[in-house]
Amino acid sequence: MYHTAQLVQTASVSAFVGTVFANLAKSGSADDEKTLKDALEKEAAKFKQRSEDAK
Predict the structure, then answer these.
(1) CB-based burial of residue 9 (10 Å sphere; 0-12 exposed, 13-18 middle, 19+ buried)?
(2) What is the pLDDT of residues 14-46, one digit of tens each?
(3) What is the pTM assigned to this prediction?
(4) How many domains does the chain fold into?
(5) Tens of pLDDT, residues 3-16
(6) 7 part of a folded domain
(7) What is the pLDDT of residue 1?
(8) What superkingdom heads the lineage (predicted)?
(9) I want to staple 29 with a disulfide (CB 3.0 to 4.6 A). Which of 17, 35, 36, 38 is the partner?
(10) What residue numbers bound the domain in which 27 lies?
């Protein structure tokens, strides 16, 4: 049971990071540090909300 939950969590984090960088690549501003920070915070908030909803 524990291993399954860990696997799901790892996959979710990978998807989260992939989404952040895919969005940055689309916007063409991946080299802008403030944009990167804002994008990470925005995606982290969405990810946290989905995690809370799943509980």
Answers:
(1) exposed
(2) 777 777 777 766 666 545 667 777 878 888 888
(3) 0.41
(4) 1
(5) 455 555 566 767 77
(6) no
(7) 43
(8) Eukaryota
(9) 35
(10) 13-54
Burial of 20 (0-12, 13-18, 19+ CB in 10 A): buried
Position 25, amino acid = A
Rounded to whole angstroms, the Cα distance separating 17 from 43 reads 9
Over 80: is that where the pLDDT of 50 sits? yes
Q: Phi, psi (5° rounding) for residue 28?
A: 75, 15
CB proximity list for 39: less than 8 A, separation 6 or greater: 20, 23, 24, 27
- d(C-alpha 7, C-alpha 54), whole Å: 15
* Number of residues assigned to the chain: 55
